[in-house]
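Is this the right way to post C-alpha cells for a design question? Let me know if I should format differently. Anyway, here goes:
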C-alpha cells in the first residue's frame, strides 16, 4: 500500500509539468468523469456500480512509468493487486508493441498468469504513450482508456498514427464516450455561464472573422451519380473504409441517380473548436452548404494526398444510430493508410477541415 501511495504523491508533485505532451491536470479532470459515466455499462454481476482503480501512464518510447495514480474508493485488500496489474499491463504492452506490434494488452492476455487487458498503446506526431487501468471489469478498463486517449488527443489536435486494435472489438467504449462527452459539455456550459461577459471573441489572437474564412482555392468536383457508392469508394483506392458506409445507410436521392453534376467546393478551416451547427452556420454566411458523402469521395479520388495533411469532414451526410449518436463521413490517414471513415459528432478540434459546396 505504501508503494501505491508513493506513486500517487509523485503524480501530485508533477502537476505543473507537461507529461508526454499532456497536462497532468487533464488526467485528473477527465478520469473521474469517465469513471462516473462507465458505471452501469458493464453487465457483470455485482460490478455494475464499480468506480475505482489505478491509472498508469507509461512513456511509449522509453518504457518508463511516468505515474500510477488511484481513483475512487479502492478497498484496502484490492489496492496492491490493482496497482500491480495496472503497471504490469503497461509494461507488457510496451514489450509486445516492439516485438509483435500489439496495440492493446488484451492481445497478450493470459488468465492463468493473471495477465489481462486494460492497456492501450498510442503513437502520435510527437511521441508515444501507454495508458493502463485496473480496477473495473477487464473490458471496461480498456474502454475507459480508449475514451481517455480520444479526449487527450483531441485536446492536442492530433490523432493516433496506429489504429488501436480494441476500437473495433471493445463493445463498451463508444457508449461511455457518448455519455462522457455529454456530461463534459454540460460542465463546460455551466462554467461558461459563470464567466464574465466579454473577451470571448478572441481565440489565439485571431478574430472570428479571420478564423472562419474558407480556403482561397476553389475546388471543382464532378460527381458521377451513375456510379454506385461502392464504385465511388473503390475509385478512391483507400487503404481502409468503414463497413457502415453503405448505400443503405447513405442512399443517393432518386433525382440525382444517373446524373453527372459539377460543383464548386472549398475547404473551411475554423482554427478553433466547433460543432456541426456552428460550422454549418459559418458556411451558410459565405454562401456554402456542407458537402455530402458522394462529394467527399470525389475529393478523395481526385486529390488523394490532401487527407494526409488534415482530416476532412462532410457534414452534409449524417448517420444516426439507435442510441441517438450522429456520425459523419471523414477522410483521414491512420498508420500511413488513407481511410474513409465515420467520425462521431462530439465536437471538432481546430485542425479539422470541412468540405463545403457553393450553393
Amino acid at each position: 500500500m505504501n508503494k501505491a501511495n508513493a506513486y500517487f504523491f509523485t503524480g501530485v508533485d508533477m502537476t505543473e509539468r507537461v507529461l508526454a505532451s499532456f497536462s497532468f491536470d487533464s488526467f485528473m479532470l477527465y478520469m473521474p468523469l469517465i469513471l462516473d459515466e462507465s458505471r452501469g455499462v458493464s453487465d457483470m454481476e455485482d460490478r455494475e456500480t464499480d468506480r475505482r482503480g489505478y491509472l498508469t501512464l507509461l512513456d511509449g518510447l522509453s518504457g518508463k512509468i511516468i505515474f500510477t495514480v488511484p481513483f475512487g474508493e479502492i478497498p484496502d485488500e484490492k489496492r496492491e493487486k490493482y496497482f500491480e496489474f495496472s503497471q504490469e499491463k503497461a509494461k507488457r504492452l510496451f514489450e509486445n508493441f516492439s516485438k509483435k506490434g500489439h496495440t492493446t494488452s488484451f492481445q497478450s492476455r493470459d488468465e492463468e498468469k493473471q495477465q489481462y487487458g486494460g492497456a492501450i498503446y498510442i503513437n502520435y506526431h510527437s511521441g508515444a504513450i501507454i495508458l493502463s487501468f485496473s480496477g473495473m471489469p477487464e473490458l471496461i478498463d480498456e474502454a475507459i482508456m480508449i475514451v481517455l486517449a480520444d479526449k487527450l488527443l483531441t485536446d492536442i489536435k492530433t490523432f493516433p498514427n496506429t489504429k488501436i486494435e480494441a476500437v473495433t472489438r471493445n463493445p463498451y467504449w463508444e457508449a461511455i464516450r457518448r455519455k462522457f462527452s455529454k456530461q463534459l459539455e454540460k460542465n463546460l456550459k455551466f462554467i461558461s455561464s459563470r464567466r464574465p461577459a466579454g473577451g470571448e471573441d478572441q481565440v489565439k489572437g485571431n478574430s472570428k472573422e479571420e478564423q472562419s474564412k474558407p480556403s482561397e482555392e476553389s475546388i471543382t468536383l464532378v460527381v458521377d451519380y451513375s456510379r454506385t457508392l461502392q464504385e465511388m469508394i473503390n475509385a478512391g483506392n483507400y487503404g481502409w473504409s468503414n463497413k457502415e458506409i453503405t448505400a443503405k445507410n447513405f442512399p443517393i436521392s432518386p433525382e440525382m441517380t444517373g446524373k453527372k453534376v459539377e460543383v464548386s467546393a472549398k475547404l473551411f478551416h475554423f482554427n478553433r473548436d466547433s460543432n456541426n451547427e456552428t460550422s454549418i452556420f459559418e458556411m451558410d454566411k459565405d454562401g456554402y452548404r456542407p458537402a455530402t458523402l458522394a462529394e467527399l469521395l470525389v475529393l478523395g479520388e481526385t486529390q488523394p494526398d490532401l487527407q494526409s495533411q488534415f482530416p476532412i469532414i462532410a457534414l452534409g451526410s449524417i448517420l444516426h444510430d439507435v442510441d441517438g449518436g450522429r456520425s459523419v463521413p471523414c477522410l483521414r490517414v491512420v498508420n500511413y493508410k488513407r481511410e474513409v471513415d465515420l467520425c462521431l459528432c462530439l465536437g471538432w478540434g481546430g485542425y479539422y477541415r470541412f468540405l463545403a459546396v457553393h450553393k
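Format looks fine. Someone answered above. Worth noting: The first strand starts at residue 18 and ends at 19. Residues 76-100 form the longest helix (25 residues).
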